[in-house]
Write a structure and sequence with these properties.
Blueprint (H helix, E strand, L loop, with lengths): L2 E7 L2 E7 L3 E6 L5 H23 L8 H9 L13 E4 L2 E3 L1 H6 L9 E4 L7 E2 L2 E2 L11 H17 L6 E3 L7 H10 L5 E5 L6 E6 L2 E3 L6 H16 L13 E5 L7 H16 L3 E6 L3 H14 L5 H7 L5 H13 L2 E6 L6 E2 L10 H4 L6 H16 L3
Parallel strand pairs: 3-14, 3-15, 6-13, 13-14
Antiparallel strand pairs: 1-2, 1-4, 4-5, 7-8, 9-10, 10-11, 11-12, 15-16
Length: 382
């Protein structure tokens, strides 16, 4: 999928999106970002979705509205109208009715989506099963949770308890950055001592259960488990046939300094040849893309990226920076309620279009603060 065009889907009247290796969506709440990302999964993984729903006992009785409620969530059946909703993928029409009625062999999942509601996946420190959710909960939340549950069930041996950090999972540069910035040296471990398994934080021998973790840690652990699943050890670069990774609001619960660690992880996903999509309310990702684009324009060395990310020059980090500089393309789109999706990929701070210069509103407050303070200084003759 290189290009997606749509008309009249939920709050989105129109969109024409050409994807980069890293594509970023910014915009206000209720502007349709989650709907758009879920639509992408539906387009790429429709057969897997329908068969997964049936496997767990769900049936939409060949009614489109029933399916929309099962997939997008309760109350979302009105976002799609066969008369006005039009979806085109690489110049081919996507017709949901036909997709839902086709029969055939189940296809492997192509897009792995880490939802914004990921904290809901852990119940008392363990991922919930698909059928543990209400019927009206979004499919992507159920499926993400089920993926985590199965991953933990199959990836840990009978006597293996350490979930993170593990020497054979992720590169040491990433492990050290995550461990120091988010967990403060604590280990994420599996506790088997009770009547039910659970994930705990081990801080110098003290076992901390889920509910006493920091907000950032509770938000991050499901994200970490999802990322761990996507980064197999050994020669395999990617997880089975997964080609796309979607992360909604990766900044949730994290201090800006800790969030910088996730920027390194995004580049590692790119290095592994995933197509990555991110929705965010943080200015850090657009700011990094803006800086990279300028550095490339000025023919700067890729080592400048290491300085931006506060990384030491190692074989791994140098390769990571070079891959981002020389091989990857970036796209940024702004979504505003009931307005067409706008391409703001230049991120030009001097563009007369405020959507571009203010990066979809992410820098608007900072700009206003600077203007007000400058005016006050001028009036005070400072």
């Amino acid at each position: 999928m290189k290009n997606l065009k749509l008309t009249s889907l939920g709050q989105i009247p129109e969109a024409d999106i050409t994807f980069g290796d890293l594509t970023v969506f910014v915009g206000e709440q209720a502007s349709g970002k989650s709907i758009l990302l879920q639509l992408m999964k539906l387009i790429l993984d429709a057969d897997d979705i329908t068969q997964t729903l049936k496997k767990h006992g769900f049936d939409w009785h060949d009614e489109l509205n029933n399916f929309l409620s099962l997939y997008f969530g309760e109350g979302m059946d009105g976002i799609w109208d066969n008369a006005s909703t039009k979806i085109t993928v690489d110049d081919e029409r996507f017709e949901l009715d036909k997709v839902l009625s086709r029969k055939g062999k189940k296809k492997a999942e192509s897009l792995f989506l880490i939802p914004a509601q990921r904290v809901m996946t852990l119940k008392d420190g363990w991922p919930r099963a698909f059928t543990d959710y209400a019927i009206g909960d979004p499919y992507v939340v159920k499926q993400f949770s089920e993926h985590l549950r199965l991953f933990l069930e199959t990836s840990l041996g009978i006597s293996e308890d350490v979930i993170f950090p593990k020497a054979h999972r992720m590169n040491k540069t990433i492990r050290d950055a995550i461990g120091g910035s988010i967990f403060g040296g604590a280990q994420v471990k599996l506790d088997r001592s009770g009547l039910r398994k659970r994930i705990i934080l081990d801080v110098e021998g003290n076992q901390l259960p889920f509910m006493v973790w920091s907000t950032g840690q509770r938000e991050f652990v499901p994200l970490l488990l999802g990322l761990d699943r996507l980064m197999p050890s050994g020669s395999a670069r990617k997880k089975n046939r997964v080609n796309w990774v979607v992360i909604e609001e990766p900044e949730m619960g994290l201090h800006p300094q800790s969030f910088s660690v996730l920027l390194i992880v995004l580049f590692e996903l790119l290095r592994r040849d995933y197509k990555v999509l991110v929705s965010t309310h943080s200015s850090q990702i657009p700011e990094l893309i803006w800086a990279i684009q300028l550095l490339i324009k000025w023919n700067a060395s890729s080592t400048r990226l290491l300085k931006l990310l506060d990384l030491n020059a190692t074989r791994f980090s140098m390769k990571l920076a070079k891959t981002v500089f020389e091989e990857k393309a970036f796209k940024t789109y702004y979504m505003s309620p009931h307005n067409a999706v706008k391409d703001i990929s230049t991120l030009d701070a001097e563009d007369p279009d405020k959507a571009i210069s203010d990066w979809g509103g992410l820098t608007l407050f900072s700009t206003n603060v600077a203007d007000v303070i400058s005016e006050a200084m001028w009036e005070a003759n400072l």
